[in-house]
Design a protein that fits this description.
Blueprint lengths: L4 E5 L3 H12 L3 E6 L10 E4 L3 H8 L2 H5 L8 E4 L5 E5 L2 H4 L2 E4 H12 L4 E4 L3 E6 L4 E5 L5 E3 L1 E4 L6 H7 L2 H4 E14 L7 E6 L3 E7 L5 E9 L10 H11 L7 H10 L4 E8 L5 E2 L2 E3 L2 H4 L8 H18 L4 H29 L6
Parallel strand pairs: 1-2, 1-11, 2-7, 4-13, 11-18
Antiparallel strand pairs: 3-6, 4-5, 8-9, 9-10, 12-15, 12-16, 13-14, 14-15, 17-18
Helix pairs in contact: 1-5, 1-11, 2-11, 11-12
């Protein structure tokens, strides 16, 4: 149907889903991923609304349902850990929640024979011409592609190279935090617990492994400056933020320092006037991250990937028309999700916008 060559940067949800749809439509797709292999980290992701239609179109909905965490809800507690309320399961788990590593493995298995995956490499330069995009890599030989798609997350390399510095696109929502797993000292059973304080929040849940729980420690920040700092500085910022906190905070801080799956990030959104420039476009968090507090990241990645693939198929080779149609179709949905992200950040002690 087409001999169009496409380079996708990022082998996550958006990249793999988009690659599958493009391959189905006859595109020759290469995926470059800076990680040395398939990412096995991440806790739980949830699906809402039209994302189920995308999973069904991918042919993996039933398999995904088989990994449902079956969360029963979240208990709200005060500063001493006493129960003060309950939140229904769908608040954090959406309509369906699965461990992220399971989703990643399923998508990779679906696409590993369809796409040319290149791990442990990264794009270093993009030079657009009338007939293609010349790409240089950190390790691999230079190549030319008809189209380049950034599906490489909040700090997208493609966005930085083609659209400008991160500061132009990122909008910090006033909170940062760390995630890690720890011993299930709270005895959680397919359930979560949430404690919010002045500028801090503790959230923990346990599902697949009864002996372990996933922990999120959040605190108010003025900028995402810590995201790219050494782990020691990130940990110290968390210890400072939770200094004097009661309940299980001291135990969680100790568990944090011992965790081998520690992950730090800030709640930020990506706002761009356009999601494409020439032959380069963005999908998922790279183009329009709504922040984790929106609870829509995975669904938005799937829906965005399908929307872009459908727009390219309908445009019959006219990438400019396709990118315009893709954005017109998806932007209202993204705008709604970004409002949810701002509201969620405010609820967790951030500024919200």
């Amino acid at each position: 149907m087409t001999n169009t060559t496409v380079l996708i940067s990022g082998a996550g949800v958006a990249g793999a889903a988009l690659g599958h749809f493009l391959h189905r439509d006859g595109y020759d797709v290469t995926v470059v991923e800076r990680a040395p292999g398939l990412r096995g980290s991440g806790y739980a992701v949830d699906f809402r609304g039209a994302a189920f239609d995308v999973l069904d179109e991918l042919g993996i909905l039933d398999e995904i349902r088989g990994h449902d965490t079956a969360m029963r809800g979240t208990t709200l507690v005060d500063v001493d850990g006493a129960e003060i309320g309950q939140l229904p399961a769908e608040t954090f788990s959406g309509d369906l929640e699965v461990p992220k590593p399971e989703l990643t493995k399923i998508l990779h298995r679906l696409t590993e024979s369809e796409l040319a995956y290149i791990f442990d490499d990264s794009i270093t330069t993009l030079t657009q011409h009338d007939t293609g995009v010349a790409v240089e890599f950190e390790h691999g030989a230079p190549r030319v592609f008809d189209l380049v798609i950034g599906a490489d997350g909040l700090f997208s390399k493609v966005r930085r190279l083609a659209f400008g510095p991160h500061e132009r696109a990122l909008r910090h929502l006033g909170m940062s935090g760390a995630g890690f797993t720890a011993d299930n000292i709270l005895g959680l059973d397919h359930s979560g617990v949430l404690q919010t304080g002045v500028g801090t929040a503790v959230y923990a849940f346990s599902a697949a492994d009864a002996d372990r729980m996933s922990v999120s420690l959040s605190f108010a920040t003025d900028a995402p400056a810590l995201d790219r700092r050494p782990r020691s500085e990130q940990e110290q910022a968390l210890k400072d933020a939770f200094a004097g906190a009661g309940w299980v905070a001291p135990q969680l801080l100790k568990a944090m320092s011992a965790a081998d799956d520690f992950y730090f990030s800030s709640s930020s959104q990506v706002h761009l006037d356009a999601w494409s420039t020439g032959r380069v476009a963005l999908v998922g968090d790279a183009g329009y991250c709504a922040a984790p507090t929106a609870g829509m990241g995975t669904s938005q990645a799937l829906i965005g990937a399908r929307a872009l693939a459908r727009a390219l198929a309908a445009a019959d080779g006219d990438h400019t028309a396709a990118f315009t149609a893709y954005e017109a179709k998806l932007r209202p949905y993204v705008t709604d999700n970004q409002v949810k992200g701002q509201e969620g950040a405010a609820a967790f002690g951030g500024r919200g916008q």
